[in-house]
Design brief:
Helices cover about 35% and strands about 20% of the residues. By secondary structure, the protein is α+β, with helices and mostly antiparallel strands.
Length: about 200
């Protein structure tokens, strides 16, 4: 249902362009490795994060790294992204026979909307609202999914302040605990059993 990726300064630009569906000089969507993007419904994608700082996602990350005094090394992961895909069992029992009928881009689907809204709520509470870069829901690919991008801030006990450290925030313990915690939260808030 969810997988995590970490990004360095060199890598972050690509995922930000993918998530925001950037366009080239001619106004066409930039093509990425995923050929299953249906650009006719790209306008249905949306961002659940509501930053009001006027910064681009890249500038937000840059400022957050400066604020937290992130090391200026090529190997430092300055952002992380959880990609959360809506599980098939979430819509089982609904009035839809298959996923193609379940997701009809012509109509807003309350199952999809509530799933991603509650997932965003969980991630915001877990990683802190001030660390959220963006949270794009993509409805224009084969399966609806969300890219939740955040800066990995942790408390530095020695210096008595926050710092950037994906290694400390997303350790083995966090990876083991994440899926059960997300499932429990969604089961409780959506009142639908997910596995």
């Amino acid at each position: 249902m969810a997988n995590l990726k970490k990004y360095t300064r060199v890598q972050i630009g690509h995922i930000l362009k993918h998530c925001s569906r950037s366009k080239d000089e001619q106004g066409n969507y930039i093509k990425f490795g995923n050929e299953n993007i249906n650009t006719e419904i790209t306008n249905l994608n949306y961002n659940l994060a509501s930053r009001h700082d006027g910064l681009s996602d890249y500038d937000f990350i840059k400022n957050r790294c400066k604020e937290l005094k992130a090391l200026n090394r090529k190997d430092v992961n300055i952002a992380c992204s959880w990609v959360v895909t809506i599980p098939h069992e979430y819509y089982k029992g609904a009035q839809f026979a298959d996923f193609d009928n379940f997701f009809n881009p012509e109509n807003e689907n309350p199952y999809i909307t509530s799933f991603f809204s509650k997932t965003y709520e969980f991630l915001k509470n877990r990683y802190g609202e001030k660390n959220i870069v963006s949270s794009y829901v993509h409805l224009d690919e084969t399966t609806p999914h969300m890219h939740f991008i955040f800066t990995p801030a942790v408390w530095d006990k020695k210096k008595g302040r926050e710092k950037i450290s994906a290694k400390e925030l997303i350790d083995k313990k966090e990876l083991i605990a994440f899926h059960p915690a997300l499932n429990a939260y969604l089961n409780k808030t959506l009142k639908k059993e997910l596995k």
